[in-house]
Amino acid sequence: MNKVYPGAIIEPLPSKCDMGPWGGGQPLSILNHYTVGCGDPSGTLAAEGLGVQFYVDRAGKVHQLIDAAHWCWHAYEMSHHAVGIEHVAYPGTCDLTVPQLEASAKLNAWLCKTFGIPAVRAPGASLYKRGIGSHNDGLEPGHNTWDPNGHYDGIWKADVAWVQGGERTLLNRSPWTAGQFITAVKAALTPAPPLPPPPKEDDMPDTADLSIRAGEYDAQKGLPPNPARAGDPKIPTDFVVYYAIGYNRMAAAMVGLGQLSPGYCPVPK
Hints:
The protein has 269 residues and is of the alpha/beta class. It contains 7 helices and 8 strands. The chain folds into 2 domains: 9-189, Peptidoglycan recognition protein-like (Lysozyme-like, 3-Layer(aba) Sandwich); 201-264, no CATH class.
């Protein structure tokens, strides 16, 4: 496979699936379906000579069936222009899940990045639209629809006027709206902020600035004199405490060294 989704479970379909290289070298859009079933769809697809590049199970695992560098027959003429993703679901029997949609959003984001597809909702039946679509887009009235069988499936709540009645009710069982899904896709495309650089040695205080007599520390903090501490040596020079740690931690460390009694340890606030 030339275009393989990282971490996908590879389940190649038989070669009889109708497929071929993308016209123009790459797809224009992504088309999301649900399977109208609760199990692995690969057997049914293979038996009918159909295929999608991916399916996402209800646990959120991504399965890849066909090299994404090729089209395959999943939505009539739209198959030549859109990557197909099935989602294991049958609304009312086994509904779409949040982990499933989260995984799908990451997969959609990867496809957008891989093929330069805009991460936007792209409704309507146009074969040449660019963006993320739903199978029920093919039912747009007044256009040359690419789905004569009237499939209304999709993975977000109904967001097009041409899906109504019981079909709209079933779509609205999805836990996400189209807006939530696109937001998750865009979030997956946003790189994580870089970690701040570690502090430089020049930014650290000198050991001498932090090495004080235990008695001087008591006086600075307004603690009563402790005769048992008279003549305490200076804190060892290798006892380096950075300003960011604060006096509470320094005092606690001094207790551990026997240079400050527990009763003198400041209370954390």
